[in-house]
Amino acid sequence: MKDKQRKTIHWTPEQRAQHQAIRDAFRDWHPGPEELIASGAAARLGLDVVHSPAQELLQHLKASREAAGLTLADLSARCGIDQPALSRLENGHTPNPTLDTLWRYAAAVGKRLLLSAEDIQDTRRVPANGGRPVRKKATGRNKRTA
């Protein structure tokens, strides 16, 4: 059996600092993709968050297309999206499909796209002081007298 050798990764000091910042940010906090976006951490840390429910939706729609006996050509004729784009969409190569694209695909396979919004639970730890600012005690020279 051959021993596999690990490929050595050579990072610049900037890349090392970015990776350390990401590790530090998530040492005690394990958010889902929605919370990453809602908190601003995804943008601040340069993370590309992929939302898996969209991929689950597309798998369901693809199964519906196949169950209906529709080819990509049939689907393309119904929804007006070209076949290569539909193939990329179904195979997960379109990371951020528009709502219009999803709506047209769903309608073409006889489905209605429903959207809803729910509150995102904040899983960040609350500081020991409950997140309240700590007031400093006034010193003798800063006190006002009436």
Overview of the structural elements:
The N and C termini lie far apart (87 Å). The mean pLDDT is 82. It is extended and about 55 Å long. 46% of the residues lie in helices and 0% in strands. The longest helix has 16 residues. The chain is built from 7 helices and no strands.
Task: Please give a handful of descriptors for the protein shown.
single chain, 146 residues, mainly alpha, 46% helix
Q: What is the chain-wise order of helices and strands? A: HHHHHHH
Arithmetic mean pLDDT: 82
Name the poorly predicted regions. Answer: none
**Beta-strand level of the residues, as a percent range?**
under 5%
Shape: extended
Helix content: 40-55%
| Strands, count | 0
Question: What profile does the largest beta sheet have?
Answer: none
| Secondary structure category | mainly alpha
Radius of gyration: 25 Å
| Count of helix runs | 7
How far apart, in Å, are the first and last alpha carbons?
87 Å
Quick recap of the structure?
With 146 residues, this protein is mainly alpha-helical. It is 46% helix and 0% strand.
